[in-house]
Amino acid sequence: MKKSENSKGIILVCMLGLTLTTCQKEEILKDNQLIPDANAKAAPAPVNANALSEYLSALSDQIEAMVVDETLNWGNGNSLIAKITNTIKSIEKGNTPSINGQLNAFINETESYIDQNILSSEQGEALIDIAENSIFVLEGKFVDSRDGHEYPVVLIGDQIWITENLAYLPDVSPSNFGSGINPYYYVYGYQGTSLAEAKGTYNFKTYGALYNWTSAKTSCPSGWHLPSYDEWTTLVNYSGGLNIAGAVLKETGTSHWTSTNAATTNSTGFTALPGGFRVGDPFYPTYNSFAQIYGFGEWWSATDDNIYNTNSYAHALSLNVSSAVYRRIDNKSSGFSVRCLKD
């Protein structure tokens, strides 16, 4: 059991890589330790030029490999590589129109190779997806057609993430209602059932919604998905590993966090916020209540776990005021935040 039941409010969380390794106790932070700034809003980081250049360099390497194995002849391959090279130069200069022009030219040329049967549809579409993703990242935003909510997006390694907690809210329940099977949606601190009231709260506007695992699995919009355990691991590893990734994933400053260590940079642009959680584990002292806003952020993964020989638990990622990242296994009826990853 990873959570203690003592009256001092100590939560025991386990650090995981690919397997459980060590556990440590984290002091629970009181909800009233921070008075939120009503005007504060998490600002997304600008497009990471280095990340985008690396992403496109990998595309160039793929094309070069196609030339080597004679999928593409030298002339066709070199033409595509030249467009990627020019795109990277434009990224370094911050010339967005040139970047878009080069990438669109790349897409058109690749489509012509598909039409001429020089590349198979599968080969060509794989190249086009990377170019289209690059244009998408440059635009820097995504609008959810279900409710019109606009999310900033960021490229981290070869993954594209929304940089706000998901705020899709088709229903809302008070914290004393929950299930590990049926979908439930919450807004931190809100104990009613009115969607209009819940969406009007500061916590919803700042931290998004909280989801039990069942609702989390299906709440990301079309073209996006709830990241798996392995996909979270890719993000953590790219961000420096368990011991330091929190520092480059969290928002800087104390507009939303109770405190933040000096190493915090948000250099990835992920902009993790401490939205707290709904306690869904009956072994926890504050079962069926909201806890730890301003001090903890918890995000579901799509990967469940048969721990304790039940089907009641799933993997999640946890951040607090330290620089570390914690991999958790928690009850599926808990209410955690969601970050969506592009398909």
Please state how the strands of the largest beta sheet are arranged side by side: 3-4-5
Categorize the overall geometry: elongated
Proportion of residues in extended strands: 15-25%
Total count of helical runs of at least 4 residues? 9
How many β strands by DSSP? 14
Mean pLDDT: 86
Structural class, by secondary structure, is alpha+beta
Low-pLDDT ranges: 1-46
Instruction: Measure the end-to-end span.
Output: 34 Å
Question: How would you sum up the major sheet?
Answer: 3 strands, antiparallel
> How many distinct domains?
2
- Could you estimate the helical fraction of the residues in percent? 25-40%
Q: Helices and strands, in N-to-C order?
A: EEHHHHEEEEHHEHEHHEEEEEE
Nearest-angstrom radius of gyration?
Answer: 22 Å
Q: How does this model look, in words?
A:
With about 350 residues, the chain is α+β, with helices and mostly antiparallel strands. The protein has nine helices and 14 strands. The longest helix is centred in the first third of the chain and has 20 residues, at about 50-70. The chain has two domains: about 10-45 and about 145-340, no CATH class; about 50-140, de novo design (two linked rop proteins) (Up-down Bundle). β1 and β2 (about 20-25) form a beta hairpin. The chain is about 35% helix and about 20% strand. The protein starts with 9 loop residues before the first strand and ends with a strand. A three-stranded antiparallel beta sheet has the order 3-4-5, covered by helices on one side.
